[in-house]
Amino acid sequence: MPALQRDTGWGPMQAYFEAARAAHAALSQAGFPVELHQPNLPVFAAEGEAKELAAAHKEGKHLWRGDAYVQLADRGRIVGLCRFLRDQLAYQQIIDVTAVDHAAEDKELWGMYAFLSLTTKLRLSVKTMIPKDDCRIDSIVPVYPGANWHERETAEFYGITYTGHPDPRHMLLPDDWVGNPLRKDYKFPEEYHGISCV
Amino acid sequence: MERAAPSPGLLQPGQREIELDVRTQDVEINMGPQHPSTHGVLRVLIRADGEIVTAAQSHLGYLHRCAEKIGENVDWLQYLPYTDRYDYLAAMNNNLGYSLAVEKLLGIEVPPRGQYLRTLIVELNRIASHLIAFGTYGLDIGAFTPFFYAFRERELLLDIFEKICGARLTYSFIRPGGVFNDAPPGWLQHVEDFCRQFEKKWPEYWDLLVENKIFIERTANVGIIPRDLAIAWGCTGPMLRGSGVDWDLRRDQPYLVYDRLEFKVITGVGYRGTVGDCFDRNYVRMLEMVESLKMVRQCLDQMPEGEVSHPDVGLIIRPAPGEAYVGIENPRGELGHYVVSDGSKIARRVRVRAPSFCNLSLVEHIMPGTMLADAVAIIGATDIVIGETDR
Amino acid sequence: MMTDLSIPTAPRKRRYWGNVWDAVKSTAIGMGITFKYLWSKSVTVQYPDEKLPTDERYRGIHYLEEDLCICCDACAKACPIDCIEMEATRHGKELEWHKFTLDYQKCMFCELCVYPCPKDCIHMGKEYALVVEDRGQLVMDLLSWKGLTEDQKVRIAEAEAKKAAKAAAQAAAQAAAKGGGAKMDAGGGGGGGGGGDSAAGASDAAETEPTH
Amino acid sequence: MGALSQKFEDNVLTTKVDWLLNWARLSSIWPMTFGLACCAIEMMAVGGPRFDIDRFGAGAFRATPRQADLMIVAGTVNFKMGERVKRLYDQMPNPKYVIAMGACATGGGPYYKFGYTVMKGVDRIVPVDVYVAGCPPRPEALLEGLMLLQQKIRRQKVVRVPKVAEIPSTPSIA
After folding, report:
1. What's the pLDDT tens digit per position in A80-128?
2. How far apart are CA C64 and CA C67, in angstroms?
3. Residues C104, D140: C-beta atoms closer than 8 Å
4. Which pTM does this prediction carry?
5. How far is B4 from C51, CA to CA, in rounded Å?
6. How large is the ipTM?
7. Contacts of residue C59 in chain B, CB cutoff 8 Å?
8. Mutate which of A10, A141, A169, A186 to test chain B, going by most B C-beta atoms within 10 A?
């Protein structure tokens, strides 16, 4: 990846790429089954990029842009990874815990974790796969208490069970709400407590 | 209410009568969802032993508006008006956060004038937002007058926003690729006039509320958040800086043109109490207004000529596949947008990391042990916007 | 001139009477500031007697330049909540309007409908006060007239007459071609019929733009 | 008014009594501080110095529904909140009025299409007197709404028997 010549206007990109590389190296050295994913498009779009993208899509190549991330192969080790990040790599803050459902027919959800280091001023995102038929993952609240509400929210939106969560109540939806709204196969409700939804 | 209240006059056999000055029992108090001093429809369930809060629990979702689901269903640009509506006090900042995330996937850079205009208007919006925080915080703890002062100046700011984008509250002004309109003629002069005016008014606020002895007594040494707790719970913005952590995304991970501006990062110093108390959080906001004003002036001085938007970004946006997270410094903390694109004109996922949401999660943990009246001061100092916590 | 905005250092800790003195003094300072405004000009706008001028770019209730609109549906497609509905019948180049409604129960005044308009005919107006007692009235029709205007009827009649004339000329030419073969005449006649239409300015693009 | 309400035929005296009562009611509408979302900020601005709702006698924002005559539903009502809105409305003493401020309270607004938890109009749970369009409405628009409500109160019959045509049709309350 070429070094940036100009400032991007949306934050120090290059530093984040390096953070992901460094974190990947340290984590794999510590024995975590991680792989590094880096974007294969340049940071700035070139002329006629749309055509290139379309051609790549036709060939089945995956060209993408954005943040580099570290993918954890074994979701059972997420708590250990978080503890390692906090204690060894000085990522003191959990910024976000969320999930992504790509398509209704997908078998897996992405579990996303975003970390921030106040001392090294770096960011890191970690991804792990959560299969939809066994939708559970360990809660990282013992390591990062700030993940508490994020996990509660993700749990009700995606139906993920965070095992070991200290307070697994509904967060934003009413207690008797049916369904997980952010799943792609979610059907909008017809009525709630006798009040029509349309 | 596990503990049964002892009923006066009825003695069990073998029980000795004890005269108590004050007979207290646990009561559960529902603060909200309709409550004069919560900012919006937050419900805090408080268990109090007499005047002392023994436990608190926040209940959210009274303003859940499905913003993230909407993001997966409308076009990239069509989602922009919805970003206005989660933190309605700082809609420009929300527009900016979303736009930066989309621009990261688009791989484009906004022309310099666009960048400066964005910085300028975002800082003005920060002043407007902190003005509300200041006014309503006074209102929360019993000072009615600052509210009128804050709204008077805020109306001037809203006039400025109305001139450039035509709306008072939900601006939809900053868009992916730049801004919708260039500043109309005379607008920059208008901003400068405001700066001059605001500079005279700000010391009044300081004397009126911050230096007021009653205000100090209500806020100093109340709701102290130690440094480590603030970091561990993911607090950001004035909440984190109030605890004495020197962290500001504008300086530490600069976006827009913040690296070309000179400003100080305000941290809580325990001016009238302990570092990290409610007073400090308000203190940070008060002084940030001044810093924002400085930045506005610098932007006015450095404002270049030229285009305001990138020419390639039209009304239908098709970013490259991929995912991007951009966090910006909102008036309330780090507003993060995590967007996932599959290359089509509709997003796969728009995730909003709301600062109020994270800041509020700590509140129920610092409340036990404080007086009931302080609960209001603590929630007020957190400066939450419910539209944002619930999205 | 920059006012001094630096913060004074915190004073030393006070005892009981010191606190009382502080409270009285700081309240008096606040009262003084408020008192100062007793003689300054009021900022209150006496609505509805006086009204603030709405700005050039104000995003208020929409208005439509109906004679320019080509019923292309671009604004309806751009709307995030589909609050615009339009319906018109085409008579050649002329449109017979049935409805163009905007649902203010949904509209969020984001101005996204204004940008894609190819004819620049839908605008955000300066009116903002829309209050009703019946919710149904918030579905507003932006049309200033419905059906065909007299002008339009005349133009349609003209266009039809021209069309008929053209068809007749073509038929005549064909007949002539069958008989002797003078193709040049027919081409010239057709061209003259098209060029003579001066009222087609607004509706010219209707043929090229995507239709409803 | 209790026992006397709507018992008398039209005549000079009852007309004047009605006029007086209505005048008293419309000149001192006490709204409830009931801010829900973005519109609440504009509602606060109405209470602020520039627009000053006190000029209409409606500046005494009461925190409790028991002291309020007017509920300004300022913002999005979702199902979780709707239950509370209904309860608050029921606690208000008669005569009570409701202004639905902004698109969300009127009919779901921007959340009409994909807002799965958003109630498509607050009139599904409480009867609404005046709808104010806008997202959010300008403070002037809310003042306009207040004036329309005052006009509506002026038409009320307090001690007179209303003619059948004048009885307002209340929406069905779920």
Report:
1. 988 898 888 888 889 989 999 888 888 888 889 999 888 888 888 899 9
2. 9
3. no
4. 0.86
5. 62
6. 0.82
7. 165-167
8. A10
